[in-house]
Amino acid sequence: MTRAPANLLAVRSLLLTHLNVDPNTVRDADLEPAEVGIVGDAAHRGGYHCGSDRVVTNDYSVVESSRDRNGLTLDAAALDVGGFEVRSGGRTHTLPSFSLWCVGQCTANAADTRDIREIIYSPDGTTVKRWDRLGKRNSGDDTHRWHTHFSFFRDAIKAGRDQRPLFRRYLSSIGLLKDDDMTPEEHNWLATVHKNLTVLDGRNPIGQVYLRLAEGRDDTGAPVTGHPNLKSLGVQITAIQTALNTLAGRDFTDEPAIIAGVLAGLTPEKIAAAIPPSIAKQVADELARRLVA
């Protein structure tokens, strides 16, 4: 029996959490649970809403891509999103504006769109269009005037890959989602990077790179010359510290030179004038003694 996979149920839950503004009341402005479908009804045969028990001969959702052929399971690989109208960030956001935003991201080949095979939508509630990653089709039936259809490559569904990032980005872009919108995989990736950048003692590949840089070696173990490394900088810092310690222990005051320099600029009259009267006689007697000697 065709089943709804966990990764598409997670997308459904995310959209209903933020676009079903009043979950206790059914109203046109809200995205209601009945408007977000994954598995086709019992009469539905063929297409991405069906799993392997309901596909048909030459089913386009299987034969046109190896990603679909290799990923075929009992899981459905499609999501329908119905109409809504929400106010956020001073603007009104609706199913057509949501659909155009998603198509724009797919057209730009954003990383979180690459598991999407197609989007069938209406930009205005009248004209039906189809964005097809494989370039096979460009339209759809009239039911897509009031709902937008997303097909996902079956191998992505089989792998259980998280399909919420694109829809989180939409909700963030219109101001309805302000919390941490990273996936568990993104958190794990950041944790790995952090661990590698903080373990620099050579126990892992990134740590080994930093260790070689610190020791001034390349990846072969040969010394690296021509630019400083942590080892050479450490030697230079040690030399600078030794020089500073030596200078700190020296007495830079050359008193005889200072006195000679002062006296050289004075006349006998200035020298006599500079001697206080209280010791003038003592100075005269000392000078007379020296002259006699």
Account of the protein in words:
The protein folds into three domains: 6-179, no CATH class; 187-248, no CATH class; 256-292, no CATH class. The protein is elongated. With 293 residues, the protein is an alpha+beta fold. 44% of the residues lie in helices and 11% in strands. Helix 1 runs parallel beside helix 6 (164-173). Strand 5 (116-121) and strand 6 form a beta hairpin.
Keywords for this entry:
single chain; alpha+beta; elongated
* Termini gap: 130 Å
* Mean of residue pLDDT values: 86
Our count of helices gives 12
Order of helices and strands: HEHHEEEHEEEHHHHHHHH
Question: How many β-strand runs?
Answer: 7
The domain tally reads 3
Give the SSE layout.
Layout: H1 6-19, E1 36-37, H2 60-63, H3 66-71, E2 78-82, E3 85-88, E4 91-94, H4 95-107, E5 116-121, E6 129-132, E7 147-152, H5 154-158, H6 164-173, H7 184-198, H8 205-215, H9 230-248, H10 255-264, H11 268-274, H12 277-292
Antiparallel strand pairs: 1-2, 2-7, 3-4, 5-6, 5-7
Helix pairs in contact: 1-6
Quick overview:
The chain is 44% helix and 11% strand.
